[in-house]
Amino acid sequence: MSITALTKKILHAALFYEIWDAMKVTFRHMLHRPMTFQYPREHRTIPDAHRGALGLLRYDDGRERCVGCDLCEVACPSHCIKVISAEDATRPLQRYASEFYIDITKCVFCGYCVEACPVNALAMTKMYEYSTHDKRSLLFDKKRLYDIGERHLDDGKKYLYAHNQEKNLEESREYRYYFPQSVAKATQTPPKHLS
Amino acid sequence: MGLKPATNPDVEATSIELSIDGKTVTAKDGVSLYDVISMTGKIIPAMCYHYTFDPFGSCGMCLVMQEGKKAPVRSCTAKAAAGMVIRTEGEDLFLARKKAVEKHLSVHPLDCPVCDADGHCELQDMAFQHGVTNLANAKQKFIPEDTRSPVLDFNMNRCIACAECINVCKDVLMIDALQFMKKGGFNQVVPKGDLPLNCEFCGDCLAVCPVGAITNKFSKYLYKPWQMKKTTTTCNYCGDGCQMYLETKDEEVVRVTSPLSWKNKWGDRSDTAKGHGGLCVRGRFGFESLDSQNRLVHPLVRENGRLVEKPWLEAMHGLVDRFVAIKEKYGPDAIAGLVTARCTNEELYLFQKLMRTAFGTNQLDSSARYGHMNFVLASKHAIGLGRASNDWEDLTKAKAIIVIGSNITETNPLTAVRIKEAVRVYRAQVVTFDSAITNMSKLASHPFLIKPGTEGAVIDGLVKAAIDLDVVDEAAVGKHPQAFEALKKAVASLSMEQLTVQTGLSNEVFREIARLFAEAPRSIVLCSEGIVRRTNGYQNVLKLMDLAWITGKLGQPGCGVSTVTEEPNEQGAVDMGTASEFLPGQGRYGDPEVRDRFAKAWDAVLPSSSSGAHLVEILRRCRTGQIKALYILGENPLATLPASMEVRAGLERLELLVVQDPFLTDTAKLAHFVLPACTYAEKDGTFTNFEGRVLRVRQAMDPRGESLPDWHIMTALANAMGCQWDYQSANDIQSEIMKLLPGYYNLGQPRKTAPTLDTYLSKGYTTKVGERYQATPEIHAPTRPFALLMGQLLMHSGKLSVQAPGLITIAPNTAKLRMNARDLEHLGLQEGMKVRLTSDRGSLQIAVQADQSVAPGTCFFPEHFNEPPVKDLMTVTVDPTTGVPSFKQMWVNVEPV
Q: Is the CATH code 3.30.70.20 the one for domain B112-289?
């Protein structure tokens, strides 16, 4: 060991250099804002495109958007969706989901179901806190999904905008498909090429 | 093929040559160009085309370029001609077809996600194939959905006006219930006259619809086609043995489809002689009995007068103990068994093996005894063939068909479609003799309404007329001159005048029909419930055999005497030996050689041949107390037979009544043990249809609740009784049958057997023939002027179909007596008014309804319903030779109250 090295070592020992060096990081962090969140007291701001729990949305007039077409069920790679559909007895021709289940424990949050939905009834929300002692409560049924959708309606819509699924509210109903409404009588004049 | 079949049994079409895409192709003259192209393996899109009917040419997709023409031509409506040069591919054709798709799509709602046809839609496929993604001038039609029919919904927004539904209804089924109508500016498919649809509801329009314009009410919006499991199986409702696809989702049956669909539009019209692949209302809409809530799901055991649920093990232990005790105390002849012909061949085989080896009794019978046995025994006796002589192809290609005593469009609708094809495509002459105004008689060239119960006299008249006219076949009668002399002598005793009075037909009719039948190159007699389920059924079938023999129609290809069966496996029940007179393979039970073979194969001593008993005898022995234990598998004698048979008294006297059934039937309610059995959707096996074709039944879903397949229960029962059966599946039983009856399965094709008349005509014929041809004077008191007939409805089959809510919606029990409107007027009755119906057996009050299919002087009540118990007014006559109970006709008095 050379003289220089020895001197340096003695000096460091005398001045408690290692401690000052280690404390440097601590003192530096005393001066700027903390990087961590005090979860659950504090929440992170989540981007709109975030894939969280799925919710079912309603139109502004309170009608269910879902038409029970089963397309989310087919699109789902983990087979966590089950839709049972039926005809709405009060509004003939209107198909709706009489039962809708998402097993969120199986969900891989790929968002395919949202992409598959022709009426943008499904949306992913920013909700991710549903830890529970009872695993059975993680099989979301139709009521639970609509509750999530209602509580996180804005998030759901933002998700759809962020993923370029829906452009604005006015167009939401006719965005990709137009479903026949219950018609009482023929109201429309025939198109030119058929008359 | 589209257009008429180019080749039929009488005319061979000439061959022509044409060039398709540079290749020379040989084809039959007169067929559609589209068929010639599809024959080469090329598939051209066509949305309005189906091979079962003539091309319509509305979709504009099947365009091809013909050399010498500027514009593309529609290949479906163009006839192939010699020397044509055709191009089927190319950019110009693709664009022309794309334009056609766009034209259809521009008025088609894009509601695919909610449409039932999504994923099974030709328009969707075409739009995808041709890359139609952007529609400039899409319009909506806004047509309200027609939901007036109980079965089908018509959503004309989706209709592409291909007319497949109209064509299949008009051309193939000859019902013509649909039409085009200009409504709201659009050409729409509407039921005839724009009334609520009221047809046979076969649903073939639904099957061929290439889009979702016609939907099935029972499965509307439930599932998408790809979500369902599709199982090919055989229909369980009648003896036609139609192949169908049972579409299930988990434990529920969602819908039934069949090979007939826009998806298989390519075929040869001559193939349809083997069936067009469709179904009838029962097959297509009667599936709800399979997953019904009324199904039995637990074994039930009677305790203190009530049936209580018990676990299988406990129930079986109790049951076996009782059987063993009865067998020990009273001997094996105290046990008897009845089985339904809705079971599979394997189960029927096992049933008779169980009765004969485990229980050691020959007192067993199946529901073939209700009528089919008459035909089998007569046919076996006469020509050595214990089933119908003809198959569907024979019927389609026949030149003359006598349909006697058969309301075939109601009982066996798909066999009726074969006769319709014979009429429409091959120009057959159809003669109907029936005491009701049947649908077949409306299509027949020679429809005759006869007086009720005179079918036998009609046959007498035909035989007599054939002999009088000397239209006999010299070669056939020349072989057996003695027999023919005896027949002549027997017939000579009949007076034509009396026959004409009796039947209500004129002398000319008999002569015309006898001549027609004798002179046609291929003639068939089709007899069913009006012959085999009525008195003298056995003799009447033999008389029909006489008619076919003297006119030389026995043994000729495409000729013969045939029948149809009501239950799916009546033929199989006879073939499997579930009758006291037969061992499997229709070997005589008394034949020592056959007995030895089976005794050896089963390693058991067969019960003596004298102890056998058929249905009526079994029920009688139950009443006398000779039989102590009755094992009923699927049968329901209490609800089937009239009260005069005293079935209830017999069953109540039993020490042990075991009923094995999917439903808690009337008989099961009396039972000591009720074992839950599976329906045909939950087990494997085979059915033998009336042609003798063995058809596969495949498991579509798991057994409901704790129910088990019948073979499983019987195997457990036999092993508990001390047998060593180790069947693990229906396949094991099948291999045993294959060993014992080589060639029975025959790859699902009917076995062709040449009839042999020689022994029949040379031994004992001369002495027996005399009794057959005796004048049977009508014996009915003038106080009973009406003939009460009981029979089948199109929508129902036995008592099983009443468990299907769909069929009950279409045809509920009206609890009304059906009468001719003229009779109602005559009696001063209005529809719905009550009458008192009196027969020798009793009387009851019942409301009336007018029915145009009921002939004057008769009244009709469907046999499926016992509310009110009209069947109890019937008298039972038991055939002395075959033991068949006949109770479908009775003389009654109808008086207003």
A: yes
Residues 181-210 of B with CB under 8 A from A: 183-186
What residues of chain A, 152 to 181, have a C-beta less than 8 Å from chain B? 177-180
What architecture (CATH level 2) is domain B786-896? Beta Barrel (2.40)
Q: What residues of chain B lie within 8 A of the CB of A193, using their CB? A: 103, 106, 137
For B204-217, give the secondary structure using H, E and C.
HHHHHCCCCCEEEC
Per-residue pLDDT at A83:
92
Report in angstroms the alpha-carbon separations of B609 from A139, A163, B273, B704, B804.
65, 82, 43, 39, 41
Per the CB < 8 A criterion, the answer to whether B180 and B189 are in contact is yes
Does B852 reach chain A within 8 Å, measured CB to CB?
no
Task: Tell which CATH architecture fits domain B15-89.
Answer: Roll (3.10)
Which residues in chain A have their CB less than 8 angstroms from residue B185's CB? 186, 189-190, 194-195
* Domain limits, CATH 3.40.50.740, in chain B: 300-368+570-740
Q: CA B760 to CA A153: how far, in whole Å?
A: 87
Q: CA nearest A85 in B: which residue?
A: B222
* Cβ–Cβ below 8 Å for B118 and A69: yes
Q: Does A187 touch chain B (CB under 8 A)?
A: yes
Question: CA triplet A8, A9, A12: central angle to 5 degrees?
Answer: 85
Mutate to test the interface with A, among B137, B147, B221, B254 (most CBs of A within 10 A): B221
Asked if the bond preceding B637 is cis, omega within 30° of 0, the reply is no
Cα(B312)–Cα(B592) distance, integer angstroms: 39
State the pLDDT at residue A193: 39
Residue with tokens 């008298």: B875
Confidence of residue B9 (pLDDT cuts 50, 70, 90): confident
Mean pLDDT of B154-158: 91
Which chain B residues are within 8 Å of A182, Cβ to Cβ? 144
Is the CB of residue A89 less than 8 Å away from at least one CB of chain B? no
Q: Which residues are bridge partners to B836 per DSSP?
A: B845, B895
Partners of A76 on chain B (C-beta within 8 Å) are none
Angstrom distance (rounded) from CA B119 to CA B466: 59
CATH superfamily of B389-562: Dimethylsulfoxide Reductase, domain 2 (3.40.228.10)
Report pLDDT digits (tens) over B493-524: 899 999 999 999 999 999 999 999 999 999 99
Question: Which fold does the domain A54-162 belong to in CATH?
Answer: Alpha-Beta Plaits (3.30.70)
Contact B730, B346 (CB under 8 A): yes
Q: Within an 8 Å CB–CB cutoff, is residue A118 touching chain B? A: yes
